[in-house]
Design brief:
Oligomer: single chain
Shape: globular
Bound molecules: S-adenosylmethionine, iron/sulfur cluster
Number of domains: 1
Helix content: 25-40%
Structural class: alpha/beta
Low-confidence stretches: none
Strand content: 15-25%
Distance between the termini: 33 Å
CATH topology: TIM Barrel
Length: about 325
């Protein structure tokens, strides 16, 4: 009989899986992936749809209730709708969500919603086309089309993730608030993390989100807010509106003591912490014909290795993987 919950050594219950289905991406956000980068994982190392279903099935039997599909950019993987349908059908899975840059979302929004994805997070750091190109190398209009399609398809909530960077886009915080208010989206600000060389270089633009909160308090009446999803964001609501604003502060105020998640890479490596290198490869086990009981046992043993906290501030050189490799 399977143990019905995963507990780590620090008494945290792990019930949330971030599932990277590709390390590839059609953008090159400068804080995430280097321009010109193409040293991707070999396709024969990607977990197949069946293998993904097996691993996530093992997690749900061990108490995981929530899965977020991510990457890289998950919409570049062929078969994304099938993967989503398979996951949505797993007994015990209550919440299937997706993180995307939305470049291809106009094409996929409806089918993903039909497949059972209900919540969607979209990365959007600027509303200015020229600046968007500078930050990501891509075209803003595609993202805006994708967001419109997400709204029409019925995703709720749609959350906008904005990495706030001093001297890059911090002058657009108020514009992003107005945009999200108008569109009925939730807005989340994120601090840059020193993940990979790209992330470390972006620390030159690091901005503690307290600065942003204080700035917004001068313009808006902010009251404590609450959002479903149980993530690390602390929410404030703009009084007199439906807008919730989340602050994700891995650097200035870490939230490791309530961490409830692990990450599965496209190659089947289980990463126990975004900011540490502790990991366990599951692919060899899967391809050696392990039973479900053996797979569950390996996952339980892996959870034992989950470190207490990241050390982004003390050891910023620690993580060599880019965010797109681990599954952000
Ligand atoms: N491609 C999808 C997207 O952009 O939403 C999903 C994967 S992306 C790696 C997930 C999130 O990681 C995005 O919101 C992105 O802004 C964030 N991210 C990537 N590198 C980061 C860094 N160095 N610091 C903070 N956030 C980062
Ligand atoms: Fe791609 Fe997302 Fe990384 Fe940007 S943040 S390069 S969209 S994986």
């Amino acid at each position: 009989m399977s143990q019905k919950s995963l507990q780590d050594r620090f008494g945290r219950t792990i019930e949330y899986l971030r599932l990277s289905i590709t390390d590839q991406c059609d953008l090159r956000c400068f804080y995430c992936m280097p321009r010109g980068f193409s040293d991707y994982e070999l396709p024969e190392h990607w977990l197949t749809e069946e293998e993904i279903e097996r691993v996530v099935g093992a997690f749900t039997r061990l108490g995981t209730r929530r899965v977020r599909i991510t990457g890289g950019e998950p919409l570049v993987r062929r078969g994304i709708d099938d993967i989503a349908s398979r996951l949505a059908a797993l007994p015990g899975l209550e919440d299937l969500s997706l993180s995307t840059n939305a470049v291809r979302l106009a094409r996929h929004a409806r089918s993903l919603h039909e497949a059972g994805v209900r919540r969607i997070n979209v990365s959007l750091d600027t509303l200015r086309p020229e600046r968007f190109r500078e930050i990501t190398g891509g075209k803003l209009s595609k993202v805006l089309d994708g967001l419109q399609a997400a709204r029409e398809a019925g995703f709720s909530p749609v959350k906008i993730n904005m990495v706030v960077m001093r001297g890059v886009n911090d002058d657009e915080v108020e514009a992003m608030v107005a945009f999200c208010m108008e569109m009925g989206f939730t807005l989340r600000f994120i601090e840059t993390m020193p993940v990979g060389d790209t992330g470390r270089r972006a620390q030159d633009h690091f901005m503690p989100l307290d600065d942003i909160r204080r700035r917004l308090e001068q313009r808006f009446d902010l009251t404590p807010g609450l959002m479903p999803g149980g993530g690390p964001a602390r929410y404030l609501r703009v009084a007199g509106s439906d807008l919730n604003i989340g602050f994700i502060t891995p650097m200035s105020q870490h939230f490791c003591d309530t961490c409830n998640r692990v990450r599965l890479g496209v190659d089947g490596t289980l990463h126990l912490c975004l900011g540490q290198s502790h990991s366990v490869p599951l692919r060899p086990l899967l391809r050696a014909g392990a039973s479900d009981t053996e797979l569950e046992g390996e996952i339980r043993r892996a959870i034992e290795l989950k470190p207490e906290r990241h050390e982004f501030n003390e050891r910023p050189e620690q993580v060599v993987r880019f965010m797109s490799m681990t599954g952000g």
